[in-house]
Amino acid sequence: MDLINNLLLGFGVAFTFQNLIYAFVGCLLGTLIGVLPGIGPLATIAMLLPATYGLPPVAALIMLAGIYYGAQYGGSTTAILVNLPGESSSVVTVLDGYQMARKGRAGPALAAAGLGSFFAGCVGTLILAGFAAPLTEVALEFGPAEYFSLMVVGLIGAVVLASGSLLKALSMIVLGLLLGLVGTDVNSGVARYSFDIPELTDGISILAIAMGIFGYGEIIQNLSHPDEKREVFTGKVDHIFPTAQDFKRMLPAVLRGTTLGSALGILPGGGALLSAFTAYTIEKKTKLQAGEIPFGQGNIRGVAAPEAANNAGAQTSFIPLLTLGIPPNAVMALMVGAMTIHNIQPGPQVMTSNPELFWGLIASMWIGNAMLVILNLPLIGIWIKLLTVPYKWLFPAIVLFCAIGVYSTNNNSFDIWMVALFGLIGYVFIKLGCEPAPLLLGLILGPMMEEYLRRALLISRGEWSVFVTRPISASLLVVALVLLTIVLLPAVKKKREEAFVED
Amino acid sequence: MPLVSQRDFLSGLMFMIVGSSFAWGAVDYEIGQAARMGPGYFPFMLGLILVGLGALVAVNSFRSGPPGGDRIGSIAWRPLVFILGANLLFGALLVGLPSFGLPPFGFIVAIFGLVTLSGYARQGCKLRESIILATILAVGSYVAFVKLLNLQFPVLPWFLAN
Questions:
Q1: Is B122 on the interface with A (CB under 8 A)?
Q2: Fewer CB within 10 A of the terminal residue: chain B, N end or C end?
């Protein structure tokens, strides 16, 4: 079978000494930043991108991917032990996880999160491997009109599923698209919006924007409130292994979480955060068995389901990136940046032109998940120690790594000034309540969308109808329209607002 | 009519200003037609869309919003100035500012500058603590970035470098 041959090829690549090391480093860093509140995978991947220049592309991508799914594991530790989401995707884990810890059941809660994540990660990886080939076939049929419509669906999806105001999220996407256009136009050679600054003719560095907005903006915001009091369960966490009863309750929850996460991860705008949220909501709707602790008071299902879902979602959100070349969320947008740096054009051709990279990356995810269980369960003590590091030691280091990272991308101090500028802009966004993740997505898609639009209209001689007369393109646009209409329905709108207020 | 959400009103205003600047800038480039799009076509369209969306956001801010006026609240000047200032200082010390006659002081001095200055972003910061942290970070970064990852930095100040 093709799939087995491909996976064998992948494991051959992933099991080389060098790639194992990078997978491990990625998972370790991912857990580290997952555990630490106040720094997320976005800023970390942005900081480390420059450091991967010297690596072979496979090793670089394996490490960066490890950071993303590793953060999903680490985030749960903080959620359970400190009542603070270490990562945005573990927001709902806080609800029941922390209550379990207060009742002396931190061990089983951590185990439920870890084992649930591991199971979900394995399933997610398999789905990624299974779906990649057929989807790639479909993608090869796509012309410019289809690609343009697909990106419209992706962007609309990202807005619909994002939290907060719909209009503002849409505006942020358009703003991102516009910022993406700064620099030399590939078609005419005109340097747009570059104000005669030579550095700007190459466009604004996506790293400078990501670090400024997600790194500095957040730090400024974190420092603006006085030190919050953290109650950390630093005592010994024992009895890690859940009881038979726990397992019986966990298992169906993990299965539901995995299914949901795998499905939602593929959707544009989906990924870890949305999956965790939906999984918890569904778990809460199911009936409590006799003698079960209610949700919000330490029910193990409330930990297992969202943790499984966020990890499955993190895994399957690689599907649109690897098969269609379209990033479904902001972290994947940075992965596009990483691939471009290594001269790999993301899209359906990756599978045929770089099979070692494609299958090696997938295989490494399975290995990485196995490493993460070991990193997170037996070695939990180390991470607990880390949680006691105060923020005052942490934030200068983050500022420093951002500055070093951005300088080393081009060895040019211009990018350092840009980070400062976008740090300021990031703080303005926070103050105005504008969610910045859609902007990053638009930034990556801006030039691509323009190019596909240009080609589609060139072929059709300026007829806009080409987008609705070609069946695939038309159905994609219908999907986008349906998505928008659904959210605008008064009943759904209300529910959506309620759902996002809950955290 | 009273403003229900201050944040939304200002966001809408921001989108309108940015959108119109982009659209206005696009006029300087050739716009062309749909069949032969010039470099100004796509940004011009997007700029107009952004103005429209911004206007909707601003209008809506009079109609709905969270209770309490959704005010912007006070601005955290202290972290804002010190974090961004530390970043700028790092750049200036690392490579120097030739146009201002500032010579490059290199990586190590720049790290001390950044860590000490950014420390003041927090209230109750102690200089001694910052210097200890800076020393640790300087040694660690030198080993990790310069020695292991082989990234190219001017390490020493101009008078020590050959």
A1: yes
A2: C
